[in-house]
Design a protein that fits this description.
- The chain has 389 residues and is of the alpha+beta class.
- It has 15 helices and nine strands.
- Helix 12 runs antiparallel to helix 13.
- The chain is elongated and about 95 Å long.
């Protein structure tokens, strides 16, 4: 039995049913009208949504210094726990002969030396810089906004501030990590210091909660690891990290899938000219394949965007997608790119071009930065030369 025979059989069955139950015609018409109005409303909403997204993309792209839907490091939503867990910890398990404390978490520095003379004040380290003569004034740190300062140790310097051990000592700090209000306030203060220092000089960011009990213990670690830190600073000179997230709204993409898929374009073309019955069955098959093709196209676009931006960077890495999902959008890509400052306009321009290329099809690019090189310091540290040149 061919397609035309099936269609004729269906139409004969429907005709017989309508003849035997003439009253159902009015009910069908009423139901069809109600559904038609609902479909019109849905189509209008989708059209308006596409127009709004297109206008937003156009407005953002018009700003030559702003990447699409950019977030700033200090205000990016959902970044508090990530910021608390990123940064560098000094290598090694002990400092100045002090044993590693039991129960230390990954967030905390594992190299806290024994308390100093007063046992009340510690040294909070925000980062390591390559300019020991840099003067830092008017920049507030954690712990009630105590000003930061640079501390010289040989050719390097640490960005530090004094902190009360009653709040930032090992036990107190571990207890505070479960207090989201305290954590958010101090993580933002920690990040604000890095934001202020990053434009001034090359910076190695330290983990949130890196605290030493004395300047001597800090100097010891800086001296022991001077060679490795100097190597990382050299590799980071003139470069900054940018983060990018790519989202998709599957409901929008499925309506534009033929733009990205030759297979779907062919199936849509085949429906044209078919009889009503055949077209109905083909439309059902088209919908099923469209959903599967949306999945493939989504990650294909993510791969293309990552490769494209990696080509405008000196380093690129992929981060876990994590729980950043909701019913209307899906996170496809979470990546970091190490970009030379001289190449940042070209990098941002490429992000804007990619955003415009996929505008209206449900894709959304969110750029954040510049950041300290959170995602790249570990690999640079591991690549430290093993012998002198």
């Amino acid at each position: 039995m061919n397609d035309d025979s099936i269609a004729q059989l269906i139409r004969a069955t429907i005709r017989k049913r309508l003849q035997s139950e003439p009253a159902c015609i009015q009910a069908l018409l009423a139901e069809a009208e109600a559904q038609a109005w609902q479909e019109v409303t849905t189509l209008l909403a989708a059209t308006m949504r596409d127009a709004i997204l297109a206008e937003v993309a156009s407005a953002v792209s018009a700003d030559s210094k702003a990447a699409p839907l950019a977030e700033t490091p200090a205000t990016a939503s959902g970044d508090i726990q990530r910021l608390a867990d990123t940064g560098v910890a000094f290598r090694g398990d002990t400092c100045a002969g002090a044993p590693k404390r039991a129960g230390a978490t990954q967030t905390l520095c594992e190299h806290v030396a024994e308390p100093g003379v007063d046992g009340e004040t510690g040294i909070y380290v925000y980062g390591i810089i390559d300019r020991s003569e840099l003067v830092l004034e008017g920049i507030a740190g954690v712990a009630g906004g105590i000003p930061i300062r640079s501390h010289r140790c040989g050719p390097l310097a640490a960005v530090i501030s004094d902190v009360p051990l009653s709040e930032f000592g090992q036990e107190a700090l571990e207890a505070h990590l479960s207090d989201m209000s305290w954590l958010e306030r101090n993580v933002r203060a920690h990040q604000a210091v890095l934001d202020a220092v990053l434009p001034l000089t090359t910076l190695i960011p330290m983990k949130f909660g890196t605290v030493f009990y004395s300047i001597d213990s800090l100097d010891m670690l800086l001296t022991e690891q001077a060679r490795g830190l100097a190597h990382v600073l050299e590799q980071l000179a003139g470069k900054r990290e940018w983060g990018l997230k790519l989202y998709v709204d599957p409901a929008i993409l499925v309506d534009h899938i033929a733009t990205y898929s030759e297979r779907m374009a062919e199936l849509q073309a085949q429906i044209t000219g078919k009889s009503q019955g055949v077209a109905y069955f083909m439309a059902r098959k088209l919908q099923e394949e469209a959903e599967a093709e949306t999945e493939r196209v989504s990650f294909s676009i993510a791969d293309e965007i990552h490769v494209s931006l990696a080509g405008h960077s000196v380093g690129a890495c992929l981060n876990p997608l994590g729980p950043d999902q909701n019913e209307e959008r899906r996170l496809l890509l979470s990546a970091a790119y190490l970009v030379a400052e001289t190449d940042e306009p070209a990098f941002q321009g490429q992000v804007a071009a990619l955003s415009a290329a996929h505008a209206g099809a449900g894709f959304m690019l969110v750029l954040s930065g510049p950041w300290p090189a959170y995602n790249f310091v570990a690999s640079l540290e591991s690549a430290e030369p093993t012998h002198d040149a």
